[in-house]
Design a protein that fits this description.
Low-confidence stretches of chain B: none
Number of strands of chain B: 12
Radius of gyration of chain A: 17 Å
Order of helices and strands of chain B: HHEHHEEEEHEEHEEEHEHEHHHHH
Oligomer: heterodimer
Structural class of chain A: alpha/beta
Number of domains of chain B: 2
Helix content of chain B: 55-70%
Low-confidence stretches of chain A: none
Chain lengths: 224, 398
């Protein structure tokens, strides 16, 4: 069974009187242990697709099966729970909470899961060790370099043991050397732990590293 | 556990924008302080006003006997209440414990040719007991004094005499009208009390029979009774009216009971207290609007944070709680500090007005409840607004 099964997904926005179609019928199956890159020029709909796959947004028509369950019309509250348990997000500009320290940032998803404090603490430490950030647990995000912040963000995405990790331009704010390190971390997670990872990027170097690449153009998959 | 975390996070957030938090807190502080101070002051004033009645006891009933109509006011001693009639009031109802009739005389008083500032009261032995007169020296008027020209002077009268003579007031003579009275007792200072129409401190008290014999205008026009605390005041009033109407004609009685008076005064000051509380609430309202303003700014500023939280799986209710907890914490903190300040203001007010200060439980509790309510009320909308943000838009915002 596929982790994600998208069937004829469309997404349209209404702006004034005109209707803008961002996605025009996407069919996509994502298997376990996949490492998928979604590429395309800006405006191709790749971010919209990721938002829908990440349950941050609803699709207009079509069906979205997550682990065999139709989640395309799920209530918002259930979406939040599903996001919390099944998904991890990594963003281009890291999006760590500036007031919290590294450890607290990583523990955040577990907080919304009502995990006990000691267990979340333990889990977060474990994950931070895995991404090589265990020495920085007391630091605030602004005391870290971009690469270090992204590692923390990856730890936050991993801590809830999700089915899929969505990374939206994860190397976009990093220099090429650090970007490569981050990609290596993703590859390692995919290879060693069998994590399913979806990377949205327009960087050819990044997409070359992935097992599977789909290209989006004007809301359609033009190349798989 | 979730709530504790919200509280901890809220605390961090408030600390991270200190100046703004302090300003919002100040609004609530001033509001709560004014509510607490106003209500406290109202209650203190009430207490002070009631204190004088309570020192005499709440089981007093007084009445005055007046002519029913103007035409009848041709003075006729025959139609006046006699002392035995008045004293027999004690027998008409078991609940009447003690009776003290008194007569007021409008005569000038002199000491060694110097006029004294004091009025003359004809009293009985029990008068001292009922209106709580304590003697500094000598004795009080006794039933045995009959028509004798003895008198007991109040504290202020004694002070005036002290200025005129070096020797002790007892045994000295006071001229009342054309008659000479011997001082047999000096009273201690008497706490002023508006339940008794006369001021004992400025009184020269003489035996009631002597007072009636002195002047044809003097009559037993006022009677104070001490009742059993369980007494039915209305029934006793009815009994007394019936009794008096049997003895004398064409008289009208005016009753005043301490209990009724206290009840009426309490009610009045309750209205005053509510009014003061409302005035205080206006500033609390302004403080609440301040909190709302701060929270709305905070929501706009933290849009991205809200987006991140939603992305990692926060429910809308979590975001809502996060902001509401912050607003409530602001007002709770401001409220607690405001209560302290308000109590202090109440204390200072009492100090300057020479009132007795009592710490009431009601105003702080009220202040506390209202400030939390303000936090919930004015925090609700910003928190709701925060929780309704679209995660994608929130993430995209700067």
């Amino acid at each position: 069974m596929s982790i994600i099964d998208l069937q004829n997904i469309t997404k349209s926005y209404r702006t004034g009187f005109s209707e803008f179609c961002a996605l025009k019928g996407i069919n996509l199956q994502l298997e376990r242990r996949d490492m998928l890159a979604i590429i395309g020029s800006s405006g191709s709909g790749k971010s919209t697709l990721m938002n829908i796959m990440g349950l941050l947004d609803y699709c207009s028509t079509g069906n979205y099966f997550l682990l065999g369950e139709d989640v395309s019309r799920l209530a918002e509250k259930k979406l939040a729970v599903t996001r919390n348990k099944k998904m991890g997000f990594v963003f281009q500009s890291f999006f760590l909470l500036p007031r919290l320290n590294v450890l607290q940032n990583v523990m955040l998803p577990l907080f919304y899961r009502e995990e006990s404090l000691t267990l979340s603490h333990q889990k977060a430490l474990e994950i931070l060790k895995k991404v090589g950030m265990e020495k920085f647990i007391d630091h605030k995000p602004n005391q870290l370099s971009g690469g270090q912040q992204q590692r923390v963000a990856i730890a936050r995405a991993l801590v809830g043991d999700p089915e899929v990790i969505f990374a939206d331009e994860p190397t976009g704010s990093l220099d090429s050397k650090t970007g490569r390190e981050i990609m290596d971390l993703f590859l390692k997670l995919n290879h060693d732990e069998g994590r399913t990872i979806v990377v949205v990027t327009h960087d050819k170097e990044v997409s070359h590293l992935c097992k599977r690449v789909i290209t989006l153009k004007d809301g359609l998959i033009v190349c798989d | 556990m979730r709530l504790i975390n919200h509280i901890r996070e809220g605390w961090f957030n408030l600390l991270s924008s200190k100046l703004r938090s302090i300003l919002a807190l100040l609004g609530i502080l001033v509001g709560t302080a004014s509510v607490v101070a106003m209500v406290s002051a109202g209650k203190l004033a009430t207490n002070e006003a009631l204190k004088q009645f309570k020192t005499l006891g709440t089981d007093l009933l007084a009445f005055s006997v007046n002519d029913a109509s103007e035409q009848d006011s041709i003075v006729s001693k025959i139609n006046n209440l006699t002392l035995p009639d008045a004293l027999n009031l004690k027998k008409i109802n078991k609940m009447i414990i003690n009776v003290a009739p008194y007569a007021q005389l409008y005569y000038s008083t002199q000491f060694n040719g110097h006029p004294l500032n004091g009025s003359v009261l004809g009293v009985t032995e029990d008068f001292a007991d009922i209106v709580h007169i304590r003697l500094a020296s000598g004795r009080f008027i006794s039933i045995m004094d009959g028509y004798e020209f003895f008198c007991v002077i109040g504290d202020k009268v004694n002070e005036q005499i002290k200025k005129l003579t070096l020797s002790d007031a007892i045994g000295q003579h006071i001229q009342i009208g054309k008659n000479i009275f011997t001082i047999v007792g000096v009273a201690n200072p008497w706490p002023e009390n508006s339940f008794v129409y006369a001021d004992i401190n400025y009184s020269v008290m003489i035996p009631i029979l002597a007072s009636i014999s002195l002047s044809q205008y003097a009559s037993i026009s006022n009677i104070i009774l001490r009742l059993d605390p369980k007494a039915d005041i209305e029934l006793i009033q009815k009994n007394i009216t019936n009794y008096i109407n049997q003895k004398v004609q064409n008289k009208r009685l005016f009753f005043r009971s301490a209990k009724e008076l206290i009840a009426r005064m309490s009610k009045q000051s309750q209205i005053l207290t509510i009014f003061l509380g409302l005035i205080g609430s206006i500033s609390l309202l302004v403080g609440g609007i301040g909190v709302m303003n701060i929270m709305l700014v905070s929501v706009v500023e933290r849009r991205r944070e809200i987006g991140i939280r939603l992305a990692v799986g926060a429910k809308r209710s979590d975001i809502w709680a996060l902001f509401l907890v912050e607003a409530v914490m602001l007002s709770l903190l401001g409220g607690t500090l405001g209560i302290t300040v308000g109590i202090f203001i109440g204390y200072v007010m009492a100090l300057f007005s020479h009132w007795e200060f009592t710490l009431f439980l009601m105003p702080p509790l009220l202040g506390f409840t209202v400030s939390v309510a303000v936090g919930v009320f004015f925090g609700y909308y910003p928190a709701y607004k925060a929780s309704q943000l679209d995660p994608i838009e929130a993430l995209r915002s700067e």
